[in-house]
Amino acid sequence: MTPAKQRPISISSSDRAVLDSQKQRFEQRTGERTNWGSFLATVALLGLAAAGVYYFVRATRRSPQAVDVQCSQCHGTFQMAVHQGSDRAIYTTCSGCGAELVVYLETQH
User: Fold this and answer.
1) Could you give the CA distance from residue 24 to residue 46 in angstroms, rounded to a whole number?
2) Distance between CA atoms of 79 and 11, rounded to whole angstroms?
3) Which of 21, 39, 55, 106 is most buried, by CB atoms within 10 Å?
4) Which residues of 67-82 are buried (b: 16+ CB within 10 A; e: fewer)?
5) What is the pLDDT along the chain (109 residues), one digit of tens a residue?
6) Sign of CA dihedral 82, 84, 89, 90
7) pTM greater than 0.70
């Protein structure tokens, strides 16, 4: 198996200065000296984790057209999206136990 070849990436001197200062801050806070490969891998993983948290929050943000439903069988709760103009009652199944439910919607005046 041949080792992977690393190619240098050209960056501007100002970008290099920013990376150097961030690497120094990282080393000061963690108390360990790392090589550039380890530092950049850590930064990339932290960036991916931050992006994952951001998209998770966006995906779970409550829609203004959502209602909380509590199952009468298992007493589990879940959210259900309600489209504008829906009937006053919606038939659905519990996401926890599969029981058939009728959800009565309140009309807003």
Assistant:
1) 17
2) 48
3) 39
4) bebebeeeeeeeebeb
5) 677 677 777 888 998 898 889 899 988 988 988 888 888 888 888 888 888 888 887 776 656 677 888 888 898 888 887 777 666 888 888 888 888 988 887 755 4
6) negative
7) no
Distance CA 102, CA 93 (A): 8
CA distance 79 to 63: 10
Q: Which two tokens stand for residue 108?
A: 């807003």
**From the CB of residue 31, how many other CB atoms can be counted at a distance below 10 Å?**
6
Q: Please report, for residues 25, 26, 30, 57, 76, the alpha-carbon distance to residue 51 in angstroms, rounded to integers and kept in the order given.
A: 22, 20, 22, 10, 30
Question: Position 52: which residue type?
Answer: G
Q: Give the burial class of 106: count Cβ atoms within 10 A of its Cβ; 0-12 exposed, 13-18 middle, 19 or more buried.
A: exposed
The tokens for 50 are 């931050």
